[in-house]
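Sharing a chain and its predicted structure for anyone who wants a worked example. Both blocks are below, sequence first, tokens second.
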Amino acid sequence: MTQAEVNVPATTANLGPGFDCLGMALDIWNTFGFQFSSTPSVTIAGEGAAGRLRSDRTNLVYRSAERYFQEVGKAMPPVAIACANRIPLSRGMGSSSSAIVGGLMGASAMAGEREADLELVWKLAVEIEGHPDNVTPVLFGGCQIVVRDGDRLVHAGVPFPQDLRAVLFIPDAPMPTAQARGVLSPQVSREDAVYNIGRAALLVNALATGRLEHLKVATQDRLHQPARQGLMPAMRLLFRAAMDGGALGVFLSGAGSSVLALTRGRELTVAYEMRDMADKAQLPGEVKITAPSTRGATITFKE
């Protein structure tokens, strides 16, 4: 019986100034197992277990698999999907993007394709998710720039030093994306637009050239983080604690609620300072040290 296992990374989006156009894969993985079955089913272990995520055909992984079969003009066979989730939900780490890409790639395997058509998966994933800055690094790995040109999407990878690390403070409380987007102004000033454009360009240059001393300035933002601070008052305190601990740059991961500090050394000190500040601010959560991932989603077949 053909079985397929899809491994899908977490992501961090925006990276400060790159609002809706920059994302980076992280070395934290969800695993989705697919196999033919007499009846469709979804089981969930880890994040989202115990009823927090749906375990029927309305599950996002299952719905994404169905969308793939619709696109290729085939009837979806009964499939059992086993989700082992390590990416926290609604914390700005791409959990929904991982589910979407996992479902699409698992469906391609169940459709008999030995290699997924990444461009088709990308197109469908953006259609389902609505925002390409998370699904693009999930699929292609690394740090990705993604822009829309009319009806077309363009993405390009940004190289970065292999010893770059990421320290995350992940609050216990989620920040739903709809709520985090709802506080944003529909208009921005020219001054703020220029502020972010310059920093996004500097960020790409700093990563690509290894001039990481520029990240302190290059991760600053005026388009989304100031508004979102109202939903998470401790955000700026965590930023300051991370920089005091030796971080190179720090930003709200995606729409939050996680805060991510980029480091090259001093990871334990940065983690300690962020945890200590969170305790003082009475913000419960956990600290995780990880790294950017150059790998995106992968499929392994088991016969």
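Comments welcome. The chain has two domains: 3-158+293-302, 165-290.
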